[in-house]
């Protein structure tokens, strides 16, 4: 039982605060069930909400933990599969069996349907914690339900009254668990890791396992990643051929940039914009079929999406520290400051890429939502994106090393960029494009350039670090 207990503790050790909150949800659901004799259906509904939400979150954390535990060498441990089975039985007993039996004893309405739904939520949480395409399927279901809310309500009422609903939900839960277990228990070679600074816009939300191994990728993700890898290979070969024909400082900087930022070449940028445009177009069209929203917020979303690139840069640079020693020896700089300056020049290309992406996303949003003032949105996004990107690059280049510190810095930069965007939008409307744009450029660029120059000096002052980052 010690091994089963250790399996149960895995979510608590990796995400302690969230795990404690989820267990408090379980206790809250138990208290709500105890209040059923006094409060009736209101207590039953509250218990169902707490148990349902807690089950989904807890099993999603279990899936994320198992994704790191279920690796080929783990199956050499004695009775590893049997301990996993007992651990799953313990989790189901806590979150599904005990609440359902207690609700049945207390006479809760629709108790077996509610228990089956909680079991389905457990299967969905486990699957979404291990396979990303499950999240996409769930997101698609919610989008369709929001597209036709009346039809979704009718289907839900008809399903609640049908005797076939419970067997069908059980079948879906079993199929999800089977797909998940088949993926986790499959013994296969370790996938090749990717560059920490690669940016396909696909795997950012997937957490890496606790041991730092690359997360398993689905077939669609592998195909799209191969497209990006093909563009990076062609860009590197082209830059290398040009440098061999005519060596120069500029082409040398391009080579370093192609090495550090493999997915930020022109072809990869165009492919990334196309993929994001397809996803955003589907979502906006689906949402706008039901409701209208403030078109001006599109520019804020565009800047938010572009700034999300820089936290990844900060994490990637720290993970790449041991590999950068090879780059240092290859470049053979005269001083350490020259090497740091080379890295800065290579990474600075992210600022114009960020501005270009912000303009492209804003233009796409203008077309999709039929904005009444497109020029005002585009000018505001173009002006704000440049200094915001400079500040984001600066703070993530010299910012805190710890996860908490980086997260706080990211929140401050993001909130500041959003505030500047809305302030700039108001300023352009109040003073006009000429005067308002001039004031906005002077204020934002002065701040952005000041922060960037200070960060650049600090980064060049620091000695290069090639130590492996602490995990």
UniProtKB/TrEMBL annotation:
Record's keyword annotation contains Cytoplasm = no
UniProtKB keywords: Membrane, Transmembrane, Transmembrane helix
Q: Which residues cross the membrane?
A: 16-36, 42-63, 84-105, 111-129, 136-155, 161-181, 269-287, 293-310, 346-371, 377-395, 407-427, 433-454
Renumbered to this chain, the signal peptide range is: none
Q: Would you tell me the protein name for this molecule?
A: ABC-2 type transport system permease protein
